[in-house]
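dude i think i finally got it to work??
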Amino acid sequence: MEKGKSSQRQTGTLYGEVTDRIITELEAGRVPWVQPWDGAQVGVGTPRNAGTGRHYSGINVLILWARLFERGFASQGWLTYRQAQALGGNVRKGETGTTVCYADRFTPKGEDGERAGDGEARQIAFLKRFTVFNVDQCEGLPANVAGVATPLGEREIVPAAEALMVASGARISTGGGEAYYMPAVDRIQLPPQQAFYDQVNFYRTALHELGHWTGHASRLDRLGGGDPQGEDYAREELVAEMCSAFVCAELGIQPTVRHADYLACWLSVLREDSRAIFRAASAASKAADYLLAFRPTVESSEMEAGQ
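look at this
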C-alpha cells in the first residue's frame, strides 16, 4: 500500500463483516477456501440453489462453505424460505438462516439523463442481502432436492481432472521440483505426480496453475505486470487458490493439504481492503467457470463410450 493512502476497510458494512470473518479464519491458521470436510459425510461440489440448480459463485461460496463446516451440514443445497415452501416443504422451526449477497447497480435519482465521458449513465455498485437455509434445515422436501451427492473416492489418477487438463489445451510440462505458470511463454510447469506425498494433491496444484493460466491476456485478461512480491501478486495467488478449491470441489477431488504459503500477504491485503476478498472470490469463480467449461458433457462422454 502506498504511503499516505487511506485504508479502504469499511467496518459495519457487509464487505467488512465478511472480510473480518475471513481474517479470523486465516489468523487461526485455517484457509476457508480449501475444502476441509470428509467427503463421506458431505456432498461434493460447490454450494447450489437446491430449487433452481444454479451454483452460487464468488464470495457466496466462501460464506456458505463456512456455515456448512460450522454446522456440519451434509448437503451443498440451499433454499430461501419461500423456495422451500414452493417445493412442498418448509424450514424447521427455530432454524437460523445464512445471509448471502449479490452485487447490483443503480443509477442515482435525478441522474438518468447525466452521462459520463463514455456516454453511459453513472451507476453505483451495492450489495443486496438475502437469507438462505441448507436443505438439512428443512423438512418435507422432495427426495431429489434433499438427496446428497455420492463423493468421488481418492485415487492416483482422477479421470475427470485428466480430461479437463487435456481439453483445456494448456501447455503443461512435468519435471523438476517446482510448480509455476509462466505468462511470457504461456506454459505451466509441474513436478511429476509421483513426487507428491499424496498424489491427489497433484491435481490441486495443477488446477492452481491453471487458475493463473486463465488470467492470460488471450483468455480472461486478468494478469498484470505487478511486483512479484507485492499486493498484486498476493491478490492473484488468492484468485488461483480459490479457483483450485472451487474446481476441485466440482470435480469431487479432495486435496489433503492447505496451502498457506502466502498467508502473511493475504492477511495484509485483506486487512487493508475489505472488498479484496469479494473481488478475488468473484475472479476465482470466473476462472473456475472458464476451466469447468472444458469438461466433456455427459452426452459426448456417452457417445464416445458407445463408439
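Residues 35 and 245 are 7 Å apart (CA to CA).
im so relieved honestly
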